Amino acid sequence: MIKSIDNIGKIYNKNIITGNYIIEVALDKYIDAFNDLDYCSYQKRDMNPKLMYFLENSVQDISNKYGIDICFYMFKENKDKKYEDNIKVGIKTYYYFLFNEHVKEVKDTYKRVVIYCLSSFFILLIQMFLGTIIKSTVLFNTIVECLNIGGWVFLWEALTLIFINRKSLMYNDQNYKRLMESTIYFRYI
To answer: Domain residue spans in the chain?
Structure first.
């Protein structure tokens, strides 16, 4: 749900220089940004599910016309430039991966739409052709009606993919792209 601009200003600070809204995250340790159960290197490690959920919900609050900054707050004694870079690369890589996976999913959806439309067309064409050339019997009428129903089901599935599922896929793509392109920085208290 997109909030009004007045409410966004109450929830998120705005970067005066860039005009981006700032998503502020407090971390005790650098490792808190990543999944505890994933033992890969930091560049390949999954994000902490709670952090991922927080970032994705925060991005949904902020209108698409504004950019996103992610500011991590940490204690001064924990400052380590190497870990900062690992978190920046890890987050960008994570959302780059999700963005590319969703792009593939959208392409697969369009392929399925074409296949379903062609299947519907050919099944309905066969149904009409059989209806005109074969003598009417109970078995034949049942087969023709099954083809008719099957053709319309394929067409309905194609329309569902186009008009219902596509919007949610495209919305996720926009959010992942915004997170992938966000400016990430650290402040120490």
So the answer is: 5-100+182-188, 104-172
